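Quick start: what a row looks like.
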Amino acid sequence: MRREKGLKRRSSSREPHRKELLRRTRELSALLAVAKTATQSLDAKKILNDTLDISLEILGFEVGYIRILDPETQSLVVRAARGLSSPEFLSTVVPLESPHRSISKIVFETREPYISSNIQKERRFRHGFMAKEGTVSAAVFVPIMSKNRFMGMMMVGSPKPHRFSKDEIDLLMAFGSQLGVALDNVQLYEEVREGKVYIENLVENAGDAVISIDLQDLILSWNRGAEVIFGYRKEDVVGKGLGILIPEAYPEESEEIRTKVQQMGVIRNLEARRKRKDGVIVDVALTVSPIYDNAGRIIGYLHMSKDITEKKRHEQRLKELDKMKSDFVSNVSHELRTPLTAIKGSVDNMLDGITGYLNEKQTRYLTRIKSNADRLTRLINNILDLSTIEAGKIDLKPAQLSLVALAREVTEIMRPMAAEKLISLEVASLDAPVSAWVDRDKIVQVLMNLIGNAVKFTPPDGKVTVAIEQNGNGWVQVSVQDTGPGILPEEAKKIFAKFYQIAQLSKQKTKGTGLGLAISKSLVEMHGGKIWLESHVGRGSTFSFTVPAEPPVQAEAPASTVGG
């Protein structure tokens, strides 16, 4: 008997522990169920409904809802509800920016749960939907959070007054955190999915052909642009080799491109030829880049092809027209030269008195004819020079020459012209023995053009300086500086264009062909150098160019500071 009483006492003392253990087990099971839903599903509606159902079940309640924050309107919208069917409530939107201090706004501002053990006694609920429907007597509102961001609010309610324990609140807060993480994952997934769809649409609807291949050159993807350019449908080529597009004349091309990509990373605008389904060969500009896996290993290649067949056809036509133009200009110039030479010879004879005495008026007219004949000769010579350069018929004959000596020789030729305007003309070089690998005649022509322009545009009593110095590894820089009126920025951009003449600030048109700088630019670039202008209105201009100091085997032209 005594033993039975003892067993009953021990059994009764264990009962609370058993109930507590059972409650804890149920709570952990519920939390595990919420976590499982949160981590295994990307369906926002299912996550919300399951979390609300589990929350109500664990507390033994039947009424609850979840409001989610709409980031665009900054309002809370009902996304899940149980025990509340009123259309008025389900469509109610709670703006967080409203001056009215609602329960939702309190939870949003504090990020803490709001607890009401008896809503009938609180003024806040007197005119609310729960008071009107009479389905809820006690309620708790918990925030839904993720990474300190407020994402919404969950409410669970009891039909009768209820004092919520700390464990219940903690469990609901845990549900809110799990729900926040789950919604965050859904949002990220949607953003990634939308981005993926957007990129896929861009690729699919691109005008260029976009093709991906694996390491065996088997085609993995084929967009509409590829269908248009190459004539194959997607289902006809996926799984087949890229070789169907490569003409028989280029059997090693794929291997060569693969090797270049592995060395350089990306190949851009590589001109290639491709074969269409109908056998027609098309020209394409090819960009090829590697495709990597998560470990950084190359698993394939992306080929983007732009059809440039028409462009190449137009380029060829332009070359033909340009050659016809050059041939025409050359023929016309030669035809003009013969009678012009005769005119000049006759005028010179008359001025020399061979044909008899000339009075002052006759001498003045003949001198004017001679001046214009000389100008026309220079124009014809410039046009012929430019035509020869553009036709690629000019050959350089470079040698190692002293640029300082060459510059001094040209300045002596130009000195009488400068003296007429009382312009100081000098060569300033800190490196007297500076030499360069240049064609003497071509560089003399460049210096004559630059120094002649400087003297022409510099006002009386001005100064023109020619400077020569080493510039970079293996390059020599020559600069011609004047104290003229300067050149406007919009003029400077076009200064090296053929036949272009600047509008002078004085509004006086300066005589010239407009070809000197264009020819100079071509001659400098034939040497591998660069030419550019630095100018300030009212302070003068400086034309500079670079030429190789030695035979340009490994030299690389330095970038100009302005305009180069």
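That is the whole record. DSSP finds 15 helices and 18 strands in the chain. The longest strand covers residues 281-292.
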